[in-house]
Structures are given as structure tokens and as C-alpha cells.
Write a structure and sequence with these properties.
alpha/beta; Transcription Regulator spoIIAA; four-stranded mixed sheet; two-stranded antiparallel ribbon; 21 helices; 7% strand; elongated; disordered N terminus; transmembrane helix; SLC26A/SulP_dom; transmembrane; Sulfate transporter
Length: 504
């Protein structure tokens, strides 16, 4: 096979150095190392920000590689713990405890498996993009606000509004503390490295920015003996917590069931939207959405059994995988192998990583979740969609994740219903004789006030003919209102209104 085109070599054989069963092993091996280096700090950072042991983030990354990575669906998409679920996981752990988290993730995985088997994966593409982007924006805002406390070495308040309201006090308290200023400076430097990294020469950028930022922060902490908190290490096996019967009993709680639904909605939507984005980055096999949903479900089922974090497909790791030249699913499987080897052989290294550096990575990740360009573009062309995006984000900050998403979905449905009920009234009035009115479109109760206002404006002292043959839909409320209007509209001595109804 030719390495450049994938076509048979001229001599009919294969190119040297290529394994017949794994023709792209070299490209996939190199890409897997890049993805591993990108995933490592993110797995640890997401776990710490979620309020769980750092090792649980590594476990989810390992499962994402070795379980989800082996299954069919999207060949180049990489799964693992995601910043988009950090806020929801933190709230779940705080409210119900770490033991119940495994049950929540397990139930999420089983539901995703069932939905994939019922071929519901493709329908997630029907979710309003404005709602999804609003969801990510709300998560980003809460994530940034919460991690700013971690950057300063302080404990964050519970709710999103309290996090935002407490920021001025955090700044005032930090200004008078040398330890807080040191911690904040290290976190700010981490963010600065991430922002500036893309402007450095290409040879330097072969090292992922997140890894470089964490490595530099760790070296600075050790070299100058900075008084900042570091990651607590418990060990891989000690961090695994299998769900017990008491934890399973948490499923009787309405709050837990609502959290599971939120996990299912957000994890599935984020994974399948990510798959669509990854498909645009390469010209290989397209994503099979139902199979990808089942692959995510299988991964979350295993993560739940191990008491680990939930997983989604992650666009940052997936795009790094494609950019590094991956050709098959072997790259994402191998990245899981490298995570497993690191967690098994070098877990003590985690203890040197400063928490402000991980918080800085998540502040940067949260900022990238806020679609500022999309908001501006939507406002110029589709202000209703922009409003849905903003309201969803604000609702998540003000209330909580699940209810915020429901508010966004309800707004999207209401907007669609309003637009679908478009109706047009055309009046032909020659100044004398009958007045002819033509209604076309969809006559629903949503437009009933406008319909009646327009009809009431027609002359009452002349014959009126209303032609409804142009209507695609006439609901019961409108039909009843039209009948009542036609009976009382004309003055005495004037011919009654004639209404031509649409054919059944």
C-alpha cells in the first residue's frame, strides 16, 4: 500500500515498514502519544475540579481508551472526563456523596446503551444548537467562577450565583494574603502559557500546551518551594469504589433521577455534537451515531461500576488526535494504554502537581466553552436563537444545570411553535361590493389574537367572504373563534359573513 494515498504499490506488494494487519500503526502510535499528553493533565484537572480523587479522572480516561475506543461508532473521536460535566458532577457529589456518583454514571451508561439499541442516537442531532451552546456557556461561566477560587487557594461557594457574587470578596481577601497571591500568580501564569502557546514556533508546539503549562508550574513550585496546595494521591486501586446496595437505593430519590436525566442529555448531546465536528476534520469513515451512543453507554457503564467520573467524547482530545495524523481507532486505544501505564507505574508524580495550575487549565477550558462568536453571529441573523442561548446560560448559572437545560429546551420548542404558526391575511377591498379576505399558513391558538384583530377590522356594513382554502392547518380554537366571529360580525341588514373552510 502507498503511504500517501492508501493505494496498492506499483510492484503489487506493500511498502516496507508496514504491518499488513495494521497499515497505519506508525501514524496511530505517534498520534496516541500526543493524545495521551493532552489527556493526562485534563483527566486530573477535571477530577480535582469535580471534587473527586484525581485517580478517578485517569480511570475514566483509561476506560474511554480501552473500552469505548475499541467499539464502533466514530473511529477518530476520543472519550474521557470532560470539563462540560464538571459542574454537574461536583453538585452531584456534594448533594448525594461519592458512592452514589457511581450509581448515577452506571444508570447513565445503561440508558445510553438502550437509546443506542433503539436507534435514538441520530435524534440528538435535532436538539437546538442554541440550547447546546447555551448549556456549554452556562457550564463555562460556572466553571470559571468556581475555579477562580481554586486559583486563589480558597473554597468556592455552592451555587453559581454565590460563586459570581463572592468574586469581589475573593479579590479583597486575596490581596492581603501572600499565600493567596502566590497561588493566584501561579494559576494566572498557567493561563498565560495556554493562551500564548499557540503563537510559539511549530517545533515547540509539538508539546501540548496543557502539559507544558502544568510541567512549568510544577517545576516552578519545586524550584522556589512555593506555598501552594498540590494534588492528593490515594492510589489507583484505593480510589475505585464499587457501588453498594445502599448507593443503589439512592435511585429512589427524585433528585438522583433528575441528575441521571441531566447526565444522559448532556453527555449524549456533547458526544454526538463532538462526533459531527470531528467528521468535518477528516475524510475517513463517517460516524454511526447509534453505535457511537452505545459505545459511550458501554464506557459509562464500566465507569459507573468502578465509581469513576462520567465520560463524553471530548473535542479537544479528538481534534488533537486528527491533527497528529491518526488514521484508525488504534490511536485512541493506545492512548488509554499509556494512561493505564502512567497510573500504575508513576502515580506519585501526581503529588507534585500544584492545584492552581490545574485550576488555570480549567479556567482556560471554561472560557473556550463560551461561544462568543456564535452569540454575535446569532444576534445579527437570528436574534431569537441568540436569546435562547443567553437565557439557557443564565438559567444554568442562576438555578442549576438540569433546570437550566429544561428552560432552554422549552424556549426552543416555544419559538419553533410560534414560527410554525405563521399566518398571512390578504384583504381585497375595491371600495364597494363584497370584501374578500384570504387566510394562508397555519392558524393556531398562538396566532389567534392577531387573526381576530385583523378580522375585526373588516367592514361590518358590507358583505365579507373569508377564504380559508390556503390554510395548511386550522386548530379547534381558531375554528371555533372564526365561527363565533362570523356569526356576530355583520350589522343588521348586511349579508352574513361567508366562510370557505379548507378541505379535510
Amino acid at each position: 500500500m502507498s503511504a500517501a494515498t492508501g493505494t496498492p504499490a506499483a510492484d503489487g506488494g506493500t511498502n516496507p515498514g508496514r504491518h499488513p494487519r495494521f497499515p497505519f500503526l506508525r501514524q496511530d502510535f505517534a498520534a496516541s502519544l500526543v493524545v495521551f499528553l493532552v489527556a493526562l493533565p485534563l483527566c486530573v484537572g477535571v477530577a480535582v475540579a469535580s471534587g473527586v480523587p484525581a485517580e478517578l479522572g485517569l480511570i475514566t480516561g483509561i476506560v474511554g481508551g480501552l473500552v469505548t475506543g475499541l467499539l464502533p461508532g466514530s473511529s477518530l473521536q476520543v472519550s474521557g472526563p470532560a470539563a462540560g460535566l464538571t459542574v454537574l458532577v461536583f453538585e452531584a457529589v456534594r448533594e448525594y456523596g461519592l458512592a452514589v456518583l457511581g450509581v448515577i454514571v452506571l444508570a447513565t451508561g445503561l440508558i445510553q446503551l438502550a437509546m443506542g439499541a433503539m436507534k435514538l442516537g441520530r435524534y440528538f442531532r435535532a436538539i437546538s444548537v442554541a440550547v447546546v451552546e447555551g448549556m456549554l456557556a452556562g457550564i463555562g461561566l460556572v466553571l470559571i467562577a468556581g475555579q477562580l477560587y481554586s486559583v486563589a487557594g480558597a473554597e468556592a461557594p455552592a451555587s453559581g450565583l454565590d460563586k459570581l457574587a463572592g468574586l469581589p470578596g475573593l479579590v479583597a481577601d486575596s490581596a492581603g494574603s501572600t499565600t493567596a497571591l502566590t497561588s493566584f500568580g501561579l494559576g494566572a501564569a498557567t493561563v498565560a502559557v495556554l493562551v500564548l502557546w499557540k503563537h510559539l514556533p511549530a517545533k515547540v508546539r509539538t508539546v501540548p500546551g496543557a502539559l507544558a503549562a502544568v510541567a512549568l508550574a510544577t517545576l516552578a513550585t519545586l524550584a522556589f518551594d512555593l506555598p501552594v496546595a498540590t494534588v492528593e494521591v490515594r492510589g489507583l486501586l484505593d480510589s475505585i469504589q464499587l457501588p453498594g446496595l445502599e448507593a443503589v437505593g439512592g435511585l429512589a430519590s427524585v433528585g438522583v433521577l433528575g441528575t441521571i436525566l441531566a447526565f444522559v442529555l448532556i453527555a449524549s448531546a456533547e458526544s454526538l455534537f463532538s462526533a459531527a465536528a470531528v467528521d468535518r476534520l477528516h475524510d475517513g469513515p463517517r460516524t454511526q451515531y447509534d453505535k457511537e451512543l452505545m459505545a459511550q453507554g458501554a464506557g459509562n457503564t464500566v465507569c459507573g461500576l468502578l465509581g469513576a467520573l462520567p465520560m463524553t467524547a471530548v473535542i479537544v482530545r479528538s481534534s488533537a488526535n486528527v491533527s497528529a495524523g491518526a488514521r484508525t481507532k488504534a490511536s485512541r486505544v493506545l492512548h488509554g494504554v499509556w494512561l493505564l501505564l502512567f497510573a500504575a507505574l508513576l502515580p506519585s508524580v501526581l503529588a507534585y502537581i500544584p492545584l492552581p495550575a490545574l485550576a488555570g487549565i480549567l479556567v482556560h477550558a471554561g472560557w473556550k466553552l463560551i461561544p462568543l462568536r456564535s452569540i454575535a453571529a446569532l444576534w445579527r441573523g437570528h436574534r431569537g436563537e441568540a436569546l435562547i442561548l443567553v437565557v439557557t446560560a443564565v438559567s444554568i448559572v442562576a438555578v442549576n444545570m438540569f433546570e437550566g437545560v429544561l428552560i432552554g429546551l422549552a424556549l426552543a420548542v416555544a419559538k419553533t411553535a410560534w414560527e410554525a404558526s405563521h399566518i398571512k391575511l390578504e384583504v381585497i377591498d375595491k371600495g364597494a361590493g363584497p370584501v374578500q379576505a384570504y387566510l394562508s399558513g397555519n392558524a393556531t391558538f398562538l396566532r389567534l389574537p392577531k387573526i381576530l384583530d385583523d378580522l375585526e377590522a373588516l367592514p361590518k356594513d358590507r358583505p365579507v367572504t373569508v377564504d380559508l382554502s390556503g390554510l395548511h392547518h386550522l386548530d379547534h380554537a381558531c375554528r371555533t373563534a372564526l365561527e363565533n366571529w362570523s356569526q356576530r360580525h355583520s350589522e343588521k341588514g348586511t349579508e352574513p359573513v361567508k366562510v370557505t373552510t379548507p378541505a379535510p
